[in-house]
Amino acid sequence: MTLFGLLSVWVLVFGIVHSEMPLESDVDVKNLLQRLVVLEESLEVERQRNDELEKTVNILTRNLEQTKRTFEDKCEALEKQLQNHREERTKISAKNVAEKTQRRRTYKNNWQRKPVVDWWTPLDSSSKSKNRDSDALSIQRRDSTNLKKRLLVQPSQVPPTPVAFYAQRSTNIPENEVTANLVIVFDVVKTNAGNGYHPSTGVFIVPESGIYVFSWSFRNSDNHSHSFQLMVNNNEEGLIYSRTAGSSISTTGVAVLHANKGDDVYIRVSSLRHTGTIYSDVLGRCVFTGWKLA
């Protein structure tokens, strides 16, 4: 029943009560009043349904925006990796050219140092023997020098790029916003070596494959309880549960696991338990951190 229909019934009842039109009995008025009560109850049910639909639409909108930001962050990370790859190839090419030029210069210098033999002057047997001995000694010395150079020159090693992040949440999450599978966004970034963590979505995109350490901490109060999952892509890799009894406590989880390049690592509210506000203030912060171990 719409609001217009409800008002029409009210007008009808008001007209009957205040008019001089005779009624057969009081039963007619009672029936109208009962119908009016039923209509009011129907209207209240419709309002509750509209509120639930509006809440569902808001949740879906937030999830869609978060998915969009995650996709944009992934594209940005891939562009950075492509740019880094191009820069590394340019450096390697320049290094190869420099080494090739140096080899040419060394070969040219060695060639210029060779003794010039006058083929037009006849040599006696003693001179030929001396020249052969001198050439053999020169070749032996040159080979020995080249061997020493090869032994002394160590291959250049590129130092590994560090990967580590540490982020906090700046504000509380009210109870009415805490829903199942809600991804927690840690918006205050303290450390982000390797640029893998994205504060707009709360997702850490793994820049390099390897063994990683992850840790996450949350604070509860006022008889509230929550479960928080460590997710890698769509798989749960860690879970902590926190429940308070008239006090305030912080709970921390730690996980050591292998992650592949491009994996999404994030913290979300478990669907098993989520009651009350999630606190993050001056008395204790919600924290998400991780670093590459090997």
UniProtKB/TrEMBL annotation:
InterPro entries assigned to the protein according to its UniProt record, in alphabetical order: C1q_dom, Cerebellin_Synaptic_Org, Tumour_necrosis_fac-like_dom
Domain C1q: 158-294
The keyword Lyase is annotated on this UniProt entry: no
Coiled-coil portions: 29-95
Pfam (any one): C1q
Signal peptide: 1-19
Keywords: Coiled coil, Secreted, Signal
GO cellular component: extracellular region
KW Lipid biosynthesis (keyword) present: no
Subcellular location(s) per record: Secreted
Protein name: Caprin-2-like
